[in-house]
UniProtKB/TrEMBL annotation:
It comes from Variovorax dokdonensis. This is dITP/XTP pyrophosphatase. Pfam families: Ham1p_like (PF01725). Signal peptide: none annotated. The gene is rdgB. Substrate binds at residues 7-12, 69, 154-157, 177, 182-183. Its cofactor is Mg(2+). Belongs to the HAM1 NTPase family. Pyrophosphatase that catalyzes the hydrolysis of nucleoside triphosphates to their monophosphate derivatives, with a high preference for the non-canonical purine nucleotides XTP (xanthosine triphosphate), dITP (deoxyinosine triphosphate) and ITP. Seems to function as a house-cleaning enzyme that removes non-canonical purine nucleotides from the nucleotide pool, thus preventing their incorporation into DNA/RNA and avoiding chromosomal lesions.
């Protein structure tokens, strides 16, 4: 089954391609099909993911899946949340992962409570007007490290410290990260939903 990924983020595509390969799902980035990015006016991950999935499906006529993910910092009341991708721009920096990390560490100076969670919400639709979208979420709690550590991953991975590993996400091998990340958890939940609810769209060889 060909599934449009309503994202132009190469890091997300690589992670999700690896996670969905066992299901026989071929993920295609929307930009490779000439689809522009959807507006994300909502204040929750699930609403934005649904808007993006519907937009990609309407433009291509194919089933689509969108991921809306972000960092929720306890000391900031759960922010930046849905504004994570543009976090750095609030402080005069250009949009980008490195600047997001820089801005976060600056704002965390003097904060005793460094608890945070990475959250991912996946929404998949069979068509743009699918009345029953599949929704799966994943969440990983950790702490914001005082400085970036590691060179793997993307986004806030270098400063997302996981006490159970004693490392940041950026220090973990991809297979370990995928097994424990917020996006990995959401993807595994989505895989089960697809097996259960989208059986007619999947190849017979990947069904139970």
């Amino acid at each position: 089954m060909k599934l449009v990924l309503a994202s132009n983020n190469a890091g997300k595509l690589a992670e999700l391609q690896q996670l969905f390969a066992p299901l026989g799902v071929a993920l295609v980035r929307q930009s490779d099909l000439g689809v522009g990015e959807a507006e994300e006016p909502h204040r929750t991950f699930v609403e934005n993911a649904l808007a993006k999935a519907r937009h990609a499906s309407a433009a291509t006529g194919l089933p689509a899946m969108a991921d809306d993910a972000g960092l929720c910092v306890e000391a900031f009341g759960g922010l930046p949340g849905v504004d994570t991708a543009f976090y750095a721009t609030q402080f005069g920096y250009a949009k980008g992962d490195a600047n997001n990390v820089r801005a976060l560490l600056e704002q965390m100076q003097g904060q005793a409570d460094r608890r945070a969670a990475l959250v991912s919400t996946l929404v998949a639709v069979r068509r743009h007007d699918d009345p029953e979208p599949l929704i799966a979420s994943g969440r990983v709690a950790g702490e914001i490290a005082p400085e970036p550590i590691g060179d793997k991953g993307f986004g806030f991975d270098p400063v997302m410290f996981l006490p159970q590993f004693g490392k940041t996400f950026a220090q973990l091998p991809p297979e370990v990260k995928n097994a424990n990340s917020h996006r990995g958890k959401a993807a595994r939940a989505m895989l089960e939903l697809m097996r259960e609810r989208w059986a007619s769209l999947l190849a017979p060889s990947v069904l139970p």
